[in-house]
Design a protein that fits this description.
By secondary structure, the protein is α+β, with helices and mostly antiparallel strands. The protein has one domain: Bira Bifunctional Protein, Domain 2 (BirA Bifunctional Protein, domain 2), CATH 3.30.930. The protein is built from five helices and nine strands; from the N terminus they run E-H-E-E-H-E-E-E-E-H-H-H-E-E. The strands form two sheets. It has a seven-stranded mixed sheet. The chain has a two-stranded antiparallel sheet with strand order 8-9. It is globular and about 50 Å long. It starts with 12 loop residues before the first strand and ends with a strand.
Length: 238
């Protein structure tokens, strides 16, 4: 597998690598971005207060996984289409992780890595990554987004009560170079950045259709649970 994306600083891109921080999202939200850098990436070896969706925390052993936050500043993305940032991130995660998973493990049902709406990335019935996105709005436009991502890369043992975590290393049978995973993700995410920048409905609609095709259990009838109890349903759109 060849490496393509360069993580070196440039006039429009900045990367910070931290040893330990409470939360990469919190750090990045309060970080000033000099000049015209429209994209800032922060990684950490360990987070003391990593967050998942809602009130959930994110478990990660020191130096074994990828913990990162990416701040992007779309040029012309309307607030009414801001979920496209989540769709682009999820697709970039799915595609980058498939690059490692598919050569080693035949995908269940031919689908490979899937997106579990709204924040998780699954392989089969296990969670390999998650994301948390915080948007800053200005009028009818998205001014910036901080995209927090955790990817289970080399951790084999999870101590929290999370029901179904699994790492890339456990799936493919050997440790994976974390920097390579990061490069793959950034390469795939940058593929979607022009769509977010331009904010055109036709391109965003195509992104949404692609996103739907890779949803976990999409179009399949399954049991679900809500406050009223168990029910059967099929995901047809989000």
């Amino acid at each position: 597998m060849e490496r393509h994306y360069c993580l070196d600083d440039s006039p429009t891109f900045r990367m910070l690598e931290l040893d330990e921080i409470d939360s990469t999202n919190r750090f990045l939200r309060h970080l000033d971005t000099p000049g015209d850098r429209r994209m800032t990436l922060v990684t950490a070896e360990f987070q003391t207060a990593g967050k998942g969706a809602g009130t959930n925390s994110w478990e990660s052993a020191r130096g074994e996984n990828l913990l990162l936050s990416l701040r992007v500043m779309p040029s012309n993305l309307p607030v009414r289409r801001m979920f496209a940032i989540s769709e682009a991130t999820a697709l970039a995660l799915k595609e980058s992780l498939d690059a490692f998973v598919l050569p080693h493990t035949p995908p269940k049902g031919g689908r490979g890595v899937c997106i579990k709406w709204p924040n998780d990335i699954y392989f089969e019935d296990c969670k390999v990554a998650g994301m948390l996105i915080e948007n800053d709005l200005m009028g009818a436009q998205v001014r910036s987004s901080v995209i927090g991502i955790g990817i289970n890369v080399n951790q084999r043992r999870f101590l929290s009560d999370a029901p179904n975590p699994r790492s890339l290393a456990d799936i493919v049978g050997h440790d994976v170079e974390r920097r390579f995973v990061l490069e793959q993700f950034m390469e795939h995410f940058m593929h979607y950045m022009p769509t977010l920048d331009e904010g055109k409905d036709d391109a965003l609609d195509a992104l949404h259709e692609c996103y739907k095709k890779h949803l976990y259990r999409f179009g399949e009838e399954h049991e679900f649970l809500d406050e009223m109890g168990v029910f059967c349903a099929k995901i047809v759109d989000v």
